[in-house]
Amino acid sequence: MRSETPIVKITMASGTDRSQSTATANGGKVLPSSTAKVALITGITGQDGSYLTELLLDKGYEVHGLIRRSSNFNTQRINHIYIDPHNAHKARMKLHYADLTDASSLRRWIDTISPDEIYNLAAQSHVAVSFEIPDYTADVVATGSLRLLEALRSHITTTGRTHVKYYQAGSSEMFGSTPPPQSENTPFHPRSPYAASKCAAHWYTVNYREAYGIFACNGILFNHESPRRGENFVTRKITRAVGRIKIGLQSKLFLGNLQASRDWGFAGDYVEAMWLMLQQEKPDNYVVATEESHTVEEFLEKAFGYVGLNWKDHVEIDKKYFRPAEVDNLKGDSSKARKVLGWKPKVGFEQLVKMMVDEDIELAKREKVLVDAGYMDAQQQP
Question: Which domain of life is it from (predicted)?
């Protein structure tokens, strides 16, 4: 989803005032200010971070997000819930500069914010790109998680705040070539630098839980999509192309392996599972999945068919989109999460595809206005 709210400003607050909470950004019921929980989210500007922020604000939390410094703002997913911190009685989401590659910034903000819950969602999360930048991927995804855990351990040791809870975002990619269905007890066999780095982060989390008694949970989430998914991920790449082709701005879509099968769910459903993990009495690892698997070709059929198009008329295979090591089939067994957390997905596969296509058709319509007015070149894509 795109927002036309002005770009947000980042305020480097030196402290945190927990008495500021009065109302959520989108009208949800809040906790009294004296009991409001404080959450710290890395990766707050991403797909999952934006949905999790909405959920936590609706539950009355004060939310702090860590973002990387960039010459271009990347806050479009949270613009619609941002309130300038100078409006102190309403602003319950605050953004701070930090980076998982900078241990000092992580420790400083944990000490300053004193969160009750930490959600580590930040990552270089594109599997194919991880083959191009493996060192960076490992530094952020694996060692970055270790830095955050160590910052939390030091904070707890210094302050005695043993109640702080930690969530580590895992990935179904960790299972790699292990045959489905995959559960918490299924062996990992990662097939990319990204997946291997997520495995390391997973075991760091387990180690800090066992060695230091930290309430640390691993959420092994299978593929979860939404209209807020990045445009270079295959599902969004497809629905974005469907919208542009339908409106007449594009004619071709280039893809790789159409037989790869994935367990696709809605990101808005999955962030609820993250939150539920940290509300339990004991920390644990949980697989979160729909327990249905569909191929990329099936996704194409649903997306193009929804708007009356035949995908075979528009899709071409480009070998550069094949991975050096493919993952053929991921299908989760989320029975533990359903039993212990009481969680289950609300949005099905077909509904998810339609939701994404509807949003991208509207986006393409807005894009066409700019093309027709001469502000964009429609030939940027074939």
Answer: Eukaryota
Please give the Cα distance from 194 to 192 (Å, whole number).
Answer: 5
Cβ atoms of 109 and 42 closer than 8 Å: no
Q: Show Cβ contacts of residue 228 under 8 Å, excluding neighbours closer than 6 positions.
A: 1, 47, 50, 51, 77, 267
Q: How far apart are CA 248 and CA 235, in angstroms?
A: 20
Whether the full predicted model's pTM is greater than 0.85, yes or no, is yes
Q: What is the DSSP string of 131-177?
A: HHSHHHHIIIIIIHHHHHHHHHHHHHHHH--TT-EEEEEEEGGGTTT
For this structure, is 183 an active site residue?
A: no
Of residues 50, 171, 172, 197, which has the active-site annotation?
171
Instruction: Verify whether residue 194 is a known catalytic residue.
Output: yes
| Residue range 254-277, pLDDT digits in tens | 999 999 999 999 999 999 999 999
From the list 173, 272, 291, 359, the catalytic residue is 173
Q: How far is CA 52 from the centre of its chain?
A: 9
pLDDT digits (tens, 9 = 90+) for 302-359: 999 999 999 999 999 999 999 999 999 999 999 999 999 999 999 999 999 999 999 9
3-class SS string, 212-227: HCCEEEEEEECCEECC
Q: pLDDT band at 380, cuts 50/70/90?
A: low
Backbone angles phi, psi at 315, to 5 degrees: -95, 135
DSSP designation for 195: H
pLDDT in tens, 131-163: 999 999 999 999 999 999 999 999 999 999 999
Residues paired with 166 in a beta bridge:
118, 216
Is residue 261 annotated as part of the catalytic site, yes or no?
no
By C-alpha distance, which of 194, 190, 193, 163 is closest to 178?
A: 190
